Fold:
Amino acid sequence: MNTALIVLLAATVVLVGLAAVFLGQETGAAGESENGTVKLPQPQTAGRVSVEEALAGRRSVRDYGAASLSLADLGQLLWAAQGVTDVRGYRTAPSAGALYPLEVTVAAGTVADLPAGVYRYVPSGHLLRRLADGDARSALARVALNQSAIEDAAAVIAISGVYERTTGKYGERGVRYVYMEAGHASQNIYLQAVPLGIGTVSIGAFDDGGVRRVLRMEEDERPIYLMPVGRV
Structure:
């Protein structure tokens, strides 16, 4: 085999590899890596439902169909809550001082291409980091006054806050800012759910310690919202 042919074959292998990487990024290919992370499909930033239509259609929904959610739909809801929208790290929900005290955790049950388990959303990479295996919805329902919406949903999105990230700058008033930010994130989930044909409801009745335990939260995290999500 002459030198020119060897060089040509090597160049072809490199180009094929680069093309695979490029296409994977462009199509938002998702999959679990060896370190327990799941890359979510690329979020959409344009749709066929206006903000006004989403506002008009927003309702609290506690009854869900049996159909599973797609990984893309779950990722879109998570992006709406805390996705990065700027090279400076700014997110979909406003944050006092851009300190971002919120954490978003998912108890996944029936989500296509995602094993049941507890996952932490990582906004900077638009990915999920697995915290625990197994379906946690029933255990989560038990520490939330046995509310059926939590057990029946395809997944449950939990919004928690680390107050110290904000109070370190703003003092005790920072706690109020954390609650304000959680409200922004929750409403973003509500509005994003409308064009996806997904129902959700904001739940605040639960045992904090129980939620923290079931969802593998850190000691400095305070759960604020549980938002079950499922097909209408």
